Structure formats: C-alpha cells, structure tokens
Amino acid sequence: MRIFLTGATGFIGSDVARNLIQAGHQVLGVTRSEAGAEALAALGAEVFHGDLNDPNGLAEGVGGCDAVIHTAFDHDFSNFAANCEKDARVIAALGAALEGSDRPFVITSVTAFGTVEPGRAAIEDHFDTHSRNPRIVSERAGRMLLERDLNVSFVRLSQIHDTRRQGLVTELIGLARRQGVSAIRGDGACRWAAAPLKDTALLYRLALEAQRPGGCYHAVAEEGVPLHAIAAAIGERLSLPVVSLAHDEAAAHFGWLSHFMESDLFASSAATQQRLNWHPAGPGLLDDIRNLDEAA
Hints:
Blueprint: E1 2-6, H1 13-22, E2 26-31, H2 34-43, E3 46-49, H3 55-59, E4 67-70, H4 80-98, E5 105-110, H5 136-147, E6 152-157, E7 159-161, H6 168-179, E8 182-185, E9 191-196, H7 197-210, E10 216-219, E11 222-226, H8 227-238, E12 242-245, H9 247-254, H10 258-261, H11 270-276, H12 285-290
Helix pairs in contact: 1-7, 4-5, 6-8
C-alpha cells in the first residue's frame, strides 16, 4: 500500500515509516522542514510538505494514497488543550478526504480513554466518554468518522520509550536534572503503562493491515510501572537522590506534570495481542532509563 503518514519524522512516526517500508509498503511522509525531507528520503520515503496548522493542506496529500496513519501531535504541553483541538481538526480534514472510500485510517489516541473505573486497567473495548483529558477530542473526532462509515481504527499510546525518549518520563528526567533530585509524590504508588518504540511501530503497521473499522489497540508491553520504581531508575542513572514530596511541595515541583503524578495510568493490551498477534519483545521502561543516551 501507499500510505500517507503524518508525523513521519517524529519520535514514533519515523520508526513507523521505517517499519512500513521494511514490510514492503510505500510511504508518503509529512514534514515541515528540509532536514525532515532529507531524513525521509534517506529512509526511502516520498516527501509531502505540510503542517498541522493547515489541516486542509494536509488533506491534499491523501489523494493517490491507499491508507492514512496519523501520528503527528503538537507536544507543547503549555498549550495542551488548544493543541488537542488542533489535532481534532486535522483528523476531521483527513477523514473528509477519505470520505466515500474504505481506505483505512489509523488515528493515535492514549490508553487513558480505555479506563472503565478506578483501580482497573484500561481496556481496548471501552471508551471513557466522561474523561476530562483534553485529548479526548482526538478519539471523539475519529469515532464521529466511524459513524459516517469510514474505515477508522485507533492505536492508543502508553509511555513509549527507547534510550532517547520515554514519553512523560522524559519530562521527569529533565526535571530531575534541573532540580538535582528525582522526586515522587507521596509513596509513588501510581503506575504508568509503557511499551518499547520498535514494538509500537510494528503495532501501527499491524493495525493498518488488519483494516478493521472501529478496531482499538493498546501499545502496552508493561501494564503498570510504579512511579517510585521510575524515580529510582532516574536517580540511579543520573546519580541523584530520590525524594518523596507532600502534596503542596509536589505541585510546586512538578508544575503541569502534577496531575499525571497522581494518575494511575495502567492499561492492558491482552485484546490487542490476541487480535493482532502482537507480542512486544523490546526492553522494559526501567532498562531504557538505566541505559539512557545522555547525548539525546
């Protein structure tokens, strides 16, 4: 298939592009820069110049493609809600370009939206319509396309990691470096699900090739790594002390991350593994933290 791939030069998207090409697919990858264009060409991908701020311009790239994978997202968390709305507009525009066809469209979401109730791992076959996470608009936009008979499926992300980046953990590492301590709130019992980058790239391809409208898949290799274990691994790698902070201290220390430090973001991928024969085999999150690439 010839696949239109947004975020093709990003942390996850570049590995998705590589996996697709190695499997024999053609990739038309979106980039904003000449450096990105050179990186895509080196992978063997075609180049499409586009930007999330121009959703209609992006949609022009869909013509002549057999499928779409949307991995791009603006990760400026200081403007998170607005960036989520921007993502929903991009999904709507790409969907409009696919209208009237059965071409598969894989959308990126997050595992938190599979939460049924506190204390239970998030699952693929549930959509928490009451979630207060602003990114719910992305999955909601995709489900609206489903109602219009588009061939939409979802890959929900956990903390995706290698030795260069680790999702929200990357922010904790940066904070530890700046503050001189690796901190947790309270006992650090909250858990975050995680998956290796290369296994996640494979999952996107398998989700695309399955072509199951409404399919929802969790990029989860470890259902829940406790925050106290994450903090300990960061402290070990950076030779910093690990400290526990009370609620007020934690709010000041973590800033916008405070909410996440109090969130149990654990999730299951049992259905994903069974339905797609996907069996993640990469290193664990703590191993990648301990082997952190300091040059990244």
